[in-house]
């Protein structure tokens, strides 16, 4: 596991000083966005467990909804969890870009981090068996060819913008076959 080579800091802190923040309190410390078929029972399970041991309240979708793209739209429960979280971990994998559900989550995370109701948001991308370069230059190319035929231009364009945004934030590239708790604890420390 190594930091990505992006020139930007690994933590993206975005504030909106022009809006008056409503009195909102974060329900979750961290929202974890991931493609379930890739990492639900492996990396994300370890990450979520380690967060819990550190008394960090993490939210992950355990209902397997993203695996089948039920209804193709993210439900309100997930959107509220994103809005109510103060930090975001986005686990980008080979199949993340094939899921309209995951991409809609990413767009909402991007919007919430930009309009964060006066709170500081931290976004932490983890590139799991992909690199930022893979994500920005083609590992999702076939997926997006299909998306362009199936979804509106505006929706696909929003997904592409969100992917460009997340790739621009320094994070961690996990390339080894085994993920050790020590590495996950280090990620949580950051």
TrEMBL record:
It catalyses: NAD(+) + H2O = ADP-D-ribose + nicotinamide + H(+). It is an enzyme of class 3 (hydrolase). Keywords: Hydrolase, Membrane, NAD, Transmembrane, Transmembrane helix. The keyword NAD applies. The keyword NAD applies. The chain crosses the membrane at residues 158-175. GO terms for biological process: signal transduction. Residues 1-26 are annotated as: Disordered. Residues 1-11 have a biased composition (Basic residues). Its EC number is 3.2.2.6. GO terms for molecular function: NAD+ nucleosidase activity, cyclic ADP-ribose generating. Residues 26-190 form the TIR domain. This is ADP-ribosyl cyclase/cyclic ADP-ribose hydrolase. It comes from Linum tenue. The lineage of its organism: Eukaryota, Viridiplantae, Streptophyta, Embryophyta, Tracheophyta.
């Amino acid at each position: 596991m190594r930091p990505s080579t992006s020139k930007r800091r690994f933590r993206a802190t975005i504030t909106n000083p022009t809006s008056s923040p409503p009195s909102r309190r974060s329900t979750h410390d961290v929202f974890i966005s991931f493609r379930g078929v890739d990492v639900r029972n492996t990396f994300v399970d370890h990450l979520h467990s380690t967060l819990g041991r550190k008394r960090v309240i993490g939210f992950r979708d355990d209902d397997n909804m993203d695996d089948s793209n039920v209804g193709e739209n993210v439900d309100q429960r997930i959107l509220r969890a994103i809005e109510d979280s103060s930090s975001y971990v986005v686990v980008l994998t080979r199949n993340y870009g094939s899921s309209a559900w995951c991409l809609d989550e990413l767009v909402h995370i991007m919007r919430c981090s930009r309009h964060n109701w006066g709170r500081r948001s931290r976004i932490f991308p983890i590139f799991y068996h992909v690199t930022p370069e893979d994500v920005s230059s083609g590992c999702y190319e076939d997926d997006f060819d299909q998306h362009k035929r199936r979804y509106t231009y505006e929706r696909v364009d929003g997904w592409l913008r969100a992917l460009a945004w997340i790739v621009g934030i320094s994070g961690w590239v996990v390339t080894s076959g085994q993920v050790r708790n020590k590495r996950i604890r280090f990620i949580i420390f950051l």
